[in-house]
Amino acid sequence: MADSTEVKAKVQEMDGIKKAAIFMISIGPETSAQIMKQLPDSYIQKVSYEIANIDYVSPKEREAIVNEYLEMSQAREYILDGGIDYAKNLLNKALGTQRAKEVIDMLNQIQLRERPFNIARKADPQQLTNLLLGEQPQTVALILCYMQPDKAAQILINFPIEKQAEIAERIGTITNTSPSVIEKIEKVIESKFSTYVENDTENVGGVSTLVEILNQVGRSTEKAIVGELEQSQPELAEEIKASLFTFEDIVSLQKNDVQKVLRDVDHDDLVLALKGVSDDLREFIYENLSSRAVETLKEDMQYLGPARLSAVEEAQQNVVTVIRRLDELGEIYIMRGEQDAIIE
């Protein structure tokens, strides 16, 4: 019992970055990599540093941190669903009064709160579209940043194409927004959105948010928006194009399309690109090659030995470049959020 108390106290004294590092170590590299992709660069650097400097984590520490994450995640869902009182009631039943209070206190300490424009996230897309059509692009962009990517895409495609590009540019270039601006916009939208505003600047938008939205719209809409951005924001357009389809997304392609891609990909790029990927992804590639090609590929990968991460990422991006080129030529098809039009 004393050991358990000591571990609990030790975990409570850890800062959030170290807890995050231990949590990622606990859940394994593949899942951790997916989470890491969602973090800001500054956090990636801090968490990576902690992971690199952790030599040992006891099973009890690992268990305590994973349990804390699960409890915090559960508490957050309860708060978002029904508010703080609803969360306290359910947590008291699930965890007991003392532990429930500790979890709520931790949530308050890290200011885990309902995001602004929460009502917009729950509202009907058509109603939101009707409401937003008359708003300025910067207003629409800020609201879409807080919404689910698929719902934001449904709204974005209803704007005239020139407005779509302007809204997309705003989303892609937003870095933070002051509470006063958020508050004014919430009032303009007649209290249809959340009334809770961060005391500090809220990090929203950016290329990742825009890419998530564009991945949900149709190919024609995406091409039109990116085309406009190439004229007004060429660097942003290139960054978006590089992020719209990742090497791991190759599994979403049809079998015939994968085989077309592999025929066009440089062999050395493919050898490098497959270093460090999951077994499932590697097997997927093997399934779309001849047995002789697979044998050669495996031999070359073994002969290659360790490779620099930057070189692997460059090779993977070269493969993505081939995929996007073939997609633009109409030789393969990348699935999008909306159905493609049928031309008779």
Automatic annotation (TrEMBL):
Residues 125-198 form the Flagellar motor switch protein FliG middle domain. InterPro entries: Flg_Motor_Flig, Flg_Motor_Flig_C, FliG_a-hlx, FliG_M, FliG_N. The keyword NADP does not apply. Residues 13-116 form the Flagellar motor switch protein FliG N-terminal domain. It is found in: Bacterial flagellum basal body; Cell membrane. Residues 228-334 form the Flagellar motor switch protein FliG C-terminal domain. Keywords: Bacterial flagellum, Cell membrane, Cell projection, Chemotaxis, Cilium, Flagellar rotation, Flagellum, Membrane. It is a peripheral membrane protein. It comes from the Bacteria. Gene3D superfamilies: 1.10.220.30. NCBIfam families: fliG. Belongs to the FliG family. This is Flagellar motor switch protein FliG. The gene is fliG.
